[in-house]
Prior knowledge:
By secondary structure, the chain is of the alpha+beta class. It has two domains: 3-81, GMP Synthetase, Chain A, domain 3 (2-Layer Sandwich), CATH 3.30.300; 92-150, Roll (SH3 type barrels). Helices cover 27% and strands 44% of the residues. It has three helices and eight strands. The strands form two sheets. Strands 7-6-5-4-8 form a five-stranded antiparallel sheet. The chain has a three-stranded mixed sheet with strand order 1-2-3. Strand 5 and strand 6 (128-133) form a beta hairpin. The radius of gyration is 17 Å and the shape is globular.
Amino acid sequence: xxxxxxxxxxxxxxxxxxxxxxxxxxxxxxxxxxxxxxxxxxxxxxxxxxxxxxxxxxxxxxxxxxxxxxxxxxxxxxxxxxxxxxxxxxxxxxxxxxxxxxxxxxxxxxxxxxxxxxxxxxxxxxxxxxxxxxxxxxxxxxxxxxxxxxxx
Length: 152
């Protein structure tokens, strides 16, 4: 299974499981480090401050769920961590929540000749991310977003 397909299928399975423990699923990344496949799960909670105990609890919850889904048929490692200071943002609610923050993002398709943006998130309306870069405001549709994160 292609990694993007795996992540697309895993998200709706893992998100409610994590929510049952009070965690927000922030990002999923499936990558390869050397010969080892790694599923990275970034979580957050109300008020932030993800601890090692939180990561352990989430990992113990997700291990049997992932095994039962058989989404990943090869051997892999599960890593659960906080989103970090440069928190990834990908959901509509994230863009609404972080208006006024400095972000870095990349689009699949250029908007006004640009694919990469580093500036202030100035708004999010009707699935359009509005970011001010170099004195100009650009709009990128959320479906055109390759990745975005806070730039703190």
